[in-house]
Amino acid sequence: MPSAAATGRGPAAADGRMEEAEEEDGGRGATGSPVASAAASDRFVRCLYAVGFLDLFGVSIVVPLMNLHIKSLGASHTVAGIIGSLYGIMQLFSSPLVGCWSDVVGRRYSLLACILLSALGYFLLGTSTTVFLFAISRVPVGIFKHTLSISKALLSDLVSEKDRPLVMGRFNAASSVGFILGPVVGGYLTELEDGFYQTSFICASIFLLNAGLVWMLPWSEENSGRREHQQGNKGIDSAKAVHDLHSKSATNGAVASNSLFRSPWAQVATVLTRIKGIACSDLWDIFLVRLLMSVAILLYYSNFTLALDERFGVKPLFAGYLMSYSSALGVLAGCLLGPITRLYQHNTYRILLHSSTFTCTLILLYASALSIWMVVLSSTFLAFSTTIGRTCIIDLELTIGGNEASGTLLGVGQSVTSVGRIVAPLLSGIAQEFSPCGPPSLGVGLALVAILIMHANKQKYCSHGNVKPKTQ
């Protein structure tokens, strides 16, 4: 059975310049010392942490101000909501397409294209003096703002399965730090004259800076480091592994290079074929678990500020501090994934099951809380369980679905989360008609269903990759 993207092409992380890099260094990537390869991999990973930080830092300085800006342009609440929904719909459909495209043409060029086109969107946002121009500026961002997903796919290509949860957790932590600092900087800048327009241009400049960083990344080190990590994943003779992986990497690099210059129609056909392979796969239960847990967490936060006011008389300022506190703890949780995975002996399924069960229990505690301190307690531990759960579900998708189509898998997973963002507000509104505790109570039920699905498919999750998509 072929894996999730068995279309005759290697993973997109083997970008088109691999052969050139191998020729320049005389094949040292395949024959160099493991210590040197590991050091090259670590340098590349640290650079990607900086890419993730700059990405969310740039976004977070402008996104919290957008609702205020569109209202200042004369848009009604309904129009503002429609534009926001259109952005979510574009993300929903573009996520798997862009993710799969990164598998076809290579991570480097797809990541650069997404960053530059996102920069264009934020530049247009800085020139939006009417509601129509505001809506137009959201189009390139809605379609191409998948830079974090492609970065995660690149990380999954580079590191071993054993190290992937740790690296993903640190990447999420670095990105979250940017999201924590960004609103503070954006709030300060918006106080200036024409503050929103200046903030938008600064955001576009940050994306251009990020594009320059991606362009200057040590891609030859990435190739060398990836080969070393791939070798570590194989339980075969060392000398044979080096030779086979060197040959395979060179072949994949040539294919990715050729894919970049293929006709657009050929690239579209390849993308659609790969997405069809995912759609016809046996991964539906993993994506369903991701959807249910995403909706459950979104229901928890959907009426958080309003519910605290109605239940405990807590002012919005306190709720804001509590959410910022939770975000900071989420960063810490990302850094603790290494010790946690070692404690569980790198069993991602068990970590996900336990974190999901813990999340369900904490949401239930919040829904039945009798004092504000019980809410603070649940928020404290929920920051850890949700961060760990998000990282583990991505790792499980890549482990079972096959790392050859990491971009496609992450794109489809992002679309699943987008569906949750569309469905959750509707469910929250209906549940809130009955009680302020209605949304989190519904979230508890959805989380329980996700836990039952994980129990029912325990054998599949523990088999680590025996489940593959059907032939395409």
UniProtKB/TrEMBL annotation:
<protein>
    <submittedName>
        <fullName>MFSD9 protein</fullName>
    </submittedName>
</protein>
<feature type="transmembrane region" description="Helical">
    <location>
        <begin position="78"/>
        <end position="98"/>
    </location>
</feature>
<feature type="transmembrane region" description="Helical">
    <location>
        <begin position="283"/>
        <end position="302"/>
    </location>
</feature>
<dbReference type="InterPro" id="IPR011701">
    <property type="entry name" value="MFS"/>
</dbReference>
<keyword id="KW-0813">Transport</keyword>
<keyword id="KW-0812">Transmembrane</keyword>
<feature type="region of interest" description="Disordered">
    <location>
        <begin position="1"/>
        <end position="34"/>
    </location>
</feature>
<dbReference type="Pfam" id="PF07690">
    <property type="entry name" value="MFS_1"/>
</dbReference>
<feature type="transmembrane region" description="Helical">
    <location>
        <begin position="196"/>
        <end position="217"/>
    </location>
</feature>
<feature type="transmembrane region" description="Helical">
    <location>
        <begin position="362"/>
        <end position="384"/>
    </location>
</feature>
<dbReference type="GO" id="GO:0022857">
    <property type="term" value="F:transmembrane transporter activity"/>
</dbReference>
<feature type="transmembrane region" description="Helical">
    <location>
        <begin position="48"/>
        <end position="66"/>
    </location>
</feature>
<feature type="transmembrane region" description="Helical">
    <location>
        <begin position="322"/>
        <end position="341"/>
    </location>
</feature>
<feature type="transmembrane region" description="Helical">
    <location>
        <begin position="110"/>
        <end position="136"/>
    </location>
</feature>
<dbReference type="InterPro" id="IPR001958">
    <property type="entry name" value="Tet-R_TetA/multi-R_MdtG-like"/>
</dbReference>
<dbReference type="InterPro" id="IPR005829">
    <property type="entry name" value="Sugar_transporter_CS"/>
</dbReference>
<dbReference type="GO" id="GO:0016020">
    <property type="term" value="C:membrane"/>
</dbReference>
<feature type="domain" description="Major facilitator superfamily (MFS) profile">
    <location>
        <begin position="44"/>
        <end position="462"/>
    </location>
</feature>
<keyword id="KW-0472">Membrane</keyword>
<comment type="similarity">
    <text>Belongs to the major facilitator superfamily.</text>
</comment>
<keyword id="KW-1133">Transmembrane helix</keyword>
<dbReference type="InterPro" id="IPR020846">
    <property type="entry name" value="MFS_dom"/>
</dbReference>
<feature type="compositionally biased region" description="Low complexity">
    <location>
        <begin position="1"/>
        <end position="15"/>
    </location>
</feature>
<dbReference type="InterPro" id="IPR036259">
    <property type="entry name" value="MFS_trans_sf"/>
</dbReference>
